[in-house]
Design a protein that fits this description.
- With about 150 residues, this protein is of the alpha/beta class.
- The chain has five helices and seven strands.
- The strands form two sheets. Strands 1-2-3-4-6 form a five-stranded mixed beta sheet. A two-stranded parallel ribbon has the order 5-7.
- Strand 1 and strand 2 form a beta hairpin.
- The radius of gyration is 14 Å and the shape is globular.
- The N and C termini lie far apart (about 35 Å).
């Protein structure tokens, strides 16, 4: 974990009855433990607010998410209140969220970033967005449900 406060990793912006969860973990919004924890906090906020009708997850940079932070691979996540969910748990939370979750995709949408997008209820992408699962080039399978979700969507 890089120790960034949640507010620096994901901003919450309310637009009427929609909560924007704006990933601000530059340069590529790597899905670090801090970013995953901040997304979880945003989802909990949205779930508890009866006036919010939907959630949009987006990026404030040129990249939606380049996926996992490989420097965290194999490192234990510190036990603390609100500890970060693993990527699979976050994707499951998004998929089963009681309100619509939409992702706005731009730039690189790779690995865990694509897995997060596949878990959402809807996706809107720029024509220039680059989607991919480079996990296999690292000799691993996607770990958060992409192999099940992607075939269901196409």
């Amino acid at each position: 974990m890089d120790g960034k406060p949640a507010a620096e990793t994901v901003r919450h912006e309310r637009r009427g009855s929609v909560l924007l969860l704006v990933m601000a973990h530059r340069p590529v919004n790597a899905l670090t433990a801090d970013l995953r924890a901040a997304l979880r906090v945003g989802l909990q906020l949205a779930a508890s607010d009866e006036n919010l009708r939907a959630v949009v997850i987006c990026s404030d940079s040129a990249q939606f998410s380049a996926g996992a932070d490989l420097s965290e691979t194999g490192k234990p996540v510190a036990a603390k209140t609100g500890a970060a969910p693993d990527l699979a748990a976050l994707c499951d939370q998004v998929e089963t969220f009681p309100k619509p979750v939409i992702v706005a995709l731009n730039g690189s949408v790779l690995g865990g970033g694509l897995e997060l997008a596949l878990a959402a209820h809807g996706r809107v992408a720029l024509v220039s967005a680059h989607l991919g699962l480079p996990d296999v080039s690292l000799g691993v399978l996607p770990v958060a449900g992409a192999t099940q979700r992607l075939p269901r969507l196409v």
